[in-house]
Specification:
six-stranded mixed beta sheet, alpha/beta, 181 residues
């Protein structure tokens, strides 16, 4: 058998992988998601809607995972309830404050959709108004009858792109803006 000299860490890793699998190629390990923590302690009656909104994003994308912050841990995202209109104040990608405003809830908007929408802003998505109910980021322009809390394919792809670089060691671009829905 003739073996060529391979250069670089990737070639060495391939050789080790092949030797450990008996010469058969092994599937590459999936890249780890960027974990973002959230503190919904101030979200009052909207706590379950916030947890569900985070779970929807976790079901929808692979590049990022939203987890409740542990006691005493500083969270990437703070979620608060107030009497105003829902809004997000991102400080940079994956960090900021979300307000679940009672004004929209009192007008009949769905709390889980509000939560998922506002978390979408923290994940780097802009409002897309006016828009159909199938677009999570259409926000209030879809009307109070819209209860869809799921991002569409384009919104999922945008979040994957926003956080995909973080999965391979590149820092995502910083952004700061106030998004009022």
């Amino acid at each position: 058998m003739h073996v060529r000299m391979l250069s670089g860490g990737l070639a060495a890793a391939c050789l080790v992988s092949l030797s450990l699998t008996g010469g058969q190629a092994a599937a590459a390990a999936p890249l780890a998601a960027r974990v973002l923590t959230y503190d919904a302690g101030g979200s009052a009656e909207f706590r379950s809607a916030v947890d569900r909104g985070a779970a929807i994003w976790n079901e929808s994308v692979d590049a990022v995972e939203l987890r409740p912050a542990a006691a005493g841990q500083r969270a990437n995202i703070r979620v608060l309830a107030d009497n105003g209109w829902p809004r997000a104040l991102p400080t940079n990608l994956g960090n900021g404050t979300v307000y679940i405003g009672r004004q929209a809830v009192d007008q009949g908007y769905n709390t889980v959709r509000i939560s998922a929408h506002e978390l979408g802003h923290i994940l780097g998505l802009p409002d897309r108004k006016p828009g159909p109910c199938s677009s999570l980021m259409s926000g209030s322009s879809a009307g109070t009858s819209c209860t869809n809390p799921y991002p569409n394919a384009a919104e999922k792809a945008e979040v994957e792109g926003n956080f995909g670089d973080a999965r391979v060691g590149r820092a995502p671009a910083a952004r700061a803006e106030v998004i009022v829905d």
